[in-house]
Amino acid sequence: MIKTKLSIAIAALGTIAATGVSAQENVPGPTVEEVIVTGSRIARDPLSTTGPITIVDSEAISRSGVGTIDELLNQLPSMGTTGINANDNNGGQGLAFVDLRNLGSARTLVLVNGRRFVSSASGVSSAVDMNNIPVDMIDRIEVLTDGASAVYGADAVAGVINVVMKDSFDGVRINARAGATKDGGGENGDLSITFGHEGERGSFVANITHAQRDEITYNDRDWAGLTSSMGPNGNIFTNYGSFSIGEDGVTLGEYAGYDIGQHMWLSGAMERTSATASGKFSITDSVELWSEASFTTKTSNQQLAAQPLYAGNGFNLNPEEHLPEAVKAQLQDAWQKADDAYAIELAAYNAAHAEWEAQGSPEGQEPTAPVASHGTDWVDGFSDFRIRPVSGGTRSYEQTTDTFRVAGGFNGDFSNGWTWDTFASYGKNEGENVILNSYNKTKLDEIFSGEAGLDYDFAGGMSPEIMDYFRYDDYEDNSYELLNFGASLSGDIDAIEFQGGALGFAAGVEYREESGEFNPSAQTQSGETFGNQQDATGGEYDVTEVFAEFNLPILQGARFAEELTADVAVRYSDFSTFGGQSTGKVGVVYAPVEDLRFRTSFSTSFRAPGIYELYSGSAQSYEYLIDPCDTSAANEDGQGANCGMVGAGFTQAGNQVPTNIGGNEELTPEEAKTFTAGIVWTPSFVDDLSITLDYYDISIEDAITSPDLQRMLDDCFRDGDSAACQFVTRGAGDQIVALEGAKMNIGQIDTRGVDVDIVQNLHFDSGRLGLRAQASRLLEYNEFNEQSGTESDYLEYVGTTSGLYVKWRGLASATWYGNDWDMGVDMQYFDDGYSPYLPVKSMTYLNLKAGWDVNESTRLSAGIDNVSDKDPHTTSGSDWNSFYDFQGRYLWAGASYQF
Question: Is 890 in contact with 179 (CB distance < 8 Å)?
């Protein structure tokens, strides 16, 4: 049996790829070197970490065949599902965000080599686009699922993802990878060259990567489809019937929805080129100079159907003035038919009522009077005219972003063994976004008024002249900058000695400036666009921080105490926006014997409101919501009781509601408390087996988030809650034209769960079989909304397009490692749950992968993801949660050659 102290340390941290010493080597175990592990700035034995850490090493990354690191991270059961990925075509903007514990990307701190990376969203939100980190330059990724604000500052509420890059390489290596889906669409590939040199006093490594990914359209997938109430010829909605206009522009037929899915993409396209370099040089035996630089340029594209035009978003057609006479005559006939039917009902009612009175008006038997829901004439009963300028082209979105970062510093050690480190870093993200085939409301009003001198007849479709007059391409730009300085000192205080060793100590200071701006087009800022109105955003803040850590090795090698270690960390942060904030952390590791370790920690964390959250002006979004006053089949719960303000037979225009999601300068920091407790068991009587069990409990107060918009609508129109109704405005056609959804410190988020990780390596003469099973059980996820006084229980909830709060998530793998080849299978599991509209069944994905080391220089690899070609479950009948696989069966292959 081979079980070294290092293998136990790996088990305690939890690597994603089970690696170890093969049975044939049979060598003594290596001495454990004290290293810096994410979650502390004090070098230590990896066994002594008080928080659960998962390590994804470069070997696991290369075997996975992924093009961006978020694809691999999102398989981990501890990862959240509220980030953004390639499947977010509508609003995703080609970004790749990750989060932990479903607490959002802004509450997960992403570091590169232990230092902050510039926020790189298309706008000024506080999140890192993982597309900017080249896969082939990654040495490992350390995922700390523990509150870490006391160590790293603001935003480490759910945890930390620290991407550790390669710092040395000797030679030249070329990697190529390509993949394709069985059903077409989503073809992708990348080509990478890594080169470097290791000298006596220094080294450098650099990488250039080019990657490309094609779109997946609705037409590429049989399961995808989307029908809209807005088509190219126009649809008319009235209280006396709904009608579709024929291509001749004068014939009214029975209403039929329009297939807009034929024009839409499911997943966006992207092309990316990056260059990364780092180096280090030993000035003296005790002083080292290091530097890092990276640049990424990226173009991403998404496509939606042509802009919908209807009363709710400003298409104010006057039926008496803007409809053809033939159409008006048919509407008059339809109204007259409804009025005649009403007259018959009214006569029958009058007769029944007279009979009821003649019988003495018996209680409970009074006839119900008919309602003249069709209006007093055809115009009064007219509700809405809805149309899409399909022949004018789709809404094509393109984002071009450049992100660069430079960092450098000095580190060294003193003769007494203490170490010191200084650094400075600067990063900037710049982006230009364009939306082709946008439409201008002011120009439309000129058409309606006659000022444009054009025919304003929209029935049957728009003429090229009309579309050319009020169509335009919408341009916007954004930028974000990060300037960061820091210095730290660490070592052992020999004057304070415990039985297990000297007191470990680290302290330092950091200064950070962040600034950003977002400049929408003039049409967008003025609200002339039929898209989302958005004011310009600009702001900045700075923060100065001091921190200290203590590591107390209380006992080591004692009876019933193989180890007893405590950690204490404190940090004070002074923000220019809201003042000072203190955080702390206490952790303990206790090992009664070498085989069994208990760990626990309690920490306080906070998240500072970002620039977009603070300084964004009015910003409009179209959220997928059901109007409770809708009378169509889409509103499965039926019309709410508080809907007297809408006309009879009212139907919602589409399934999106205009919502203000602008900033709020009154926001204050979120404050969180995190408790973790875990067990690491590496039984000596079983070769190479480790079992870890970790419990977490996170409570966030004054949470910065958007209000629950669907609940707000339900509270207002179903329950008559006036507090909720004040945030809703109805306009033309009784449609909701404004819903207040700006971010607020609305209350509290509580989540609890358990993580399990079992690793077993079975050694044979011909190789090694690595087995691993990871699972996460969500016990609680509640949000309390002070605005409405309601509590939302998200356990088992599956969001319509994002967010997956199922009870169980799992990842299991079995990999055979031969002398020069390997083959493995991964299985990913999501438990069942429910969406706002439908129950959602569980999902299991099966992935295969294999690799062959042809010689010392060449490696070939291939794999099949989603072997059984599972389709995503629909969450509403026309929506799918973006965390499920949209690709279907996916085949990939790669090759690597090193000179």
Answer: yes
